[in-house]
Amino acid sequence: MAKKVNFDQSQKLDITCRRGDSFSMTVTLKDSSGTALPLVTDDYSFVMQVRSSMRSAQAKGTSGLILSTVGIGPTAKRRDGSEMSFEEFTLDNSGNLTIRATAETMRFVPAGSYIYDIQQIKPNSTTGVDDHKTILKGSFKVNEDVSDATTSPASR
Q1: CA 127 to chain centre
Q2: pLDDT tens for each residue of 18-62
Q3: Alpha-carbon distance 146 to 93, whole Å?
Q4: N or C: less crowded end of the chain, CB within 10 Å?
């Protein structure tokens, strides 16, 4: 008889980025046979949250929330009350999930070491209860930036 079962199928991926730089990451998701998931057709959605620590993650809500997903879950806020969110995620039927944050958003993320995870949500039309699964987790390190490019050449 089995004495242990592990339902945590998430993979660890540590991310390092630079404060004030545009952030873009594409992850390709496949099933156990290696076939790309039809993310658009099957109506998947995703949540990514970056938090200051595991303690803040356990507290839930906006405690320690650094960056969040637009329209899903709690929202990270700047001191002025504006949102600190990733752009709307881009999905396709080749299993590609692209996550972006603008340089402006990343300018307001303090340099430091954080934690994150990405959770996929797949609707279940049979039971009506969505299937949630954490697919990636790890550290999210933001390195300090020297340059302050608050305007682009096109806007001068």
Answers
A1: 27
A2: 999 999 999 999 998 999 999 999 899 999 999 998 777 666 767
A3: 39
A4: N
Phi and psi of 153, rounded to 5°? -55, -30
- Strands of the chain, DSSP E: 11-12, 15-18, 23-28, 45-51, 65-67, 90-91, 96-101, 112-122, 131-143
Tokens of 77: 């806020």
Query: What counts of helices (H) and strands (E) characterise the chain?
Result: 2, 9
User: Contact, 66 vs 87, CB < 8 A?
Assistant: no
Is the pLDDT confidence value at 155 over 70?
no
Per-residue pLDDT tens for 72-97?
888 888 888 888 899 999 999 999 99
Count how many Cα atoms sit within 13 Å of the Cα of residue 61 in the half-sphere of its side chain.
2
139 neighbors 52 (Cβ within 8 angstroms):
no
Q: Distance between CA atoms of 96 and 91, rounded to whole angstroms?
A: 6
> What's the pLDDT at 94?
97
Rounded Cα gap, residues 7 and 156, in angstroms: 53
Question: Other CB atoms closer than 10 Å to residue 28's CB: what's the count?
Answer: 11
